[in-house]
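Step 1: inspect the first sequence and its tokens.
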Amino acid sequence: MSHRPRTRTVRCCALLLAPLAVAATACQGSLSDPLAAKPYDAAEQVSANASGTHKVDPNKPLEITATDDEARITDVTATDAAGRYINGELSVDGKKWRTTLPLAAGTRYTVRVSTEDEDGLPGRKTLQVDTADSDNRLRVKFGPESGTYGVGQPITAELSKQIQDPKARAVVERSLKVESTPRVEGSWHWVDGKSLHFRPREYWPAHASIDVHSTLEGLKVSKELYGGPANPVKLRTGDRVEAVTDAAAHYMTVTRNGEQINSIPVTTGKPGYSTRNGTKVVLGKEGFVRMRGTSIGIPSGSSDAYDLPVYWATRVTWSGEYVHAAPWSVRSQGADNVSHGCTGMSTDNAKWFFDTVRVGDIVKVINSGGETMTPFDNGFGDWNMSWEEWRKGSALGGDEGAGTGARSEQRPGPADAARLRPQV
């Protein structure tokens, strides 16, 4: 064996007539202590199932083998570039260590191996092992874009591929990180196989900082599917601004951080066009919108037909529900519901509301004859689902997915165009 000169234990002999204490003292000074020895280079004692330009197949375990008959492996730690450890097991005889969890694709692992020789002296070796990349990647796009939003803004994660298997969903969800200051209780909810929403149990605190990122890249999600990249987003929340419209009383009350800042006479949807009840989130603001009845199926010759220029329009659903200026219905505002589903108010009040709210703020309607806002298919109705039901949409279950360590102005695609129908 050429890795190092062996240190042999010195055998000491004492005259039989010498006192035992003297003999013991002489022997103690010449014993070798394996625990105090400086670890030698174990390069010739161990090998990995990868060398040079050869890369480990991430679908197969990483193996470290003791190649010297007179040495054994005592410990192995393997970490990736992000510092994540990967579990492994060591054979009883100390001759082989292998990973017990899937490897990440396209990743470099630092493997630290500890050994000992036949005399019990320690050896050390650090190996760099690369895994082969994969073209089959699951990419993630977080929303909204980095910026400041209202306290009702959910976080979204859009996946590049459908994920249906519960175990694969758990891998994905566990890797999507939401960290807030102050910390809140929150959870991801699978809307469908490609979309997840994250919200706290209650609204976000005012002036919170929220960091959203992924640790999925390279991780094995399912057979031959590996995590891909995701750009992180950083969000802040502004003041807690809430607008509550009582459709029966015909007034909107606006509060900031719990204190009332305005009470506005309004008109909401008339019978047959009743405004949706429930909690909505501001999706965007448009200074001018052309609203036509034909966009929501009203024939141009109908008595309900309309074609109007609308100003200071704050959108709350993709199907065309707004809070906007309605100078034609000022006489009804505060007294009657005459709109086709939107919340109308005077031009001055609509301008004030437009300037006061931001994307992500809360707009709630109560005491209307309309149905309740749906959770996911017409904007952000996430808050209309109880926390218990919301948690059932997590792939992790229990408390694993709860806690933190929010599509702003969603850009609808062609398939959404038919739903973007203004209504007055």
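Step 2: inspect the second sequence and its tokens, then contrast the two.
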Amino acid sequence: MIQKPEKSAHAHSAANLAPAAGPRPPVRPWRWGAAAGVGGLFATAAAVFNRASTRRAEAETPPAGAFVEVDGVRLHYVERGEGPVVVLLHGNGVMLQDFEVSGVLDLAAARHRVLAFDRPGFGHSDRPRSTVWTPSAQAALLARALQQLGVERAVFVGHSWGTMVALAMALDHPDLIGGLVLISGYYYGTARPDVVPASTPAIPLLGDLLAATVSPLLARITGPLGIKASFAPAPIPDKFSAFPVAMTLRPSQIRATAADTAMMVPAAVMLSRRYAELSVPVVIMAGDGDLIVHKARHADRLAQEVAAADLRVIPGQGHLLHYAVPEQVVTAIHDVLSRNHRQRATAA
């Protein structure tokens, strides 16, 4: 029988000296505690900084107009001029100053009674969490506010997300509508991968924490790129420097912006099923270089679907085209009013 040779003494010694295989030592508990402590200190410091920034922003940009209260909700609005009524509805993330800084408000007020509203949750308007603020819910609130202000009929000018509120007003409250001017609107449900991350601050509890701490800081970093993209392919105009950007970084407005972002696609899907019902004069304005809402997928399609629509494409402009052509916006208002008067005269 052949026997296997025994291991040498050197081999035995090497085996005895080799470290025994086994699980890695656990992470020290104090490391987790230290990380949590650092995170807590950062969150606290961020929250304190954001609260101070909010107080400073609101002191620098106090309410510029008046308030109307509807069912316990206070809406802030600015009123200027006399004549046929025009209502201005801003887009997501901004406030009524968007129409003021762009020049649309004052130009329109030369011949019209203009009411520019802070939509719920933006600027100085309330946004109770007991309501899901769909375009239809916002339109219903505005309809009751306008009745309190003695408005019987108006031309509604909406920009971006505000176009959905204007469309909901025309579909749900047609007696209040004399026509629509829709600027850079999102009208149909299309794939928007940016919606998911931008909607995070709207998530209950987690969103509140993010909006109070991290989100305003991230917005300060990414905001300049977003502004540039909103004007592209045009440059950012000098007059935009007067827009109170700090107001958009308040936790309350960040939550409102996120909630409207989360609602954008389903709201457009619901509204688009009813566009054939529109019978009032409509002017659709779109920039041919809009990077935020593509003209072909939205403005062109809506113009084909709505018989009463007049599409006006602004060359070389992007999403915030009204800063470049406020005069053309006011011309669109006049044209809608003239068409409405002709329609009513024919019907009579």
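Step 3: confirm your contrast with the notes below.
The two ends are 121 Å apart (CA to CA). The chain has twelve helices and eight strands.
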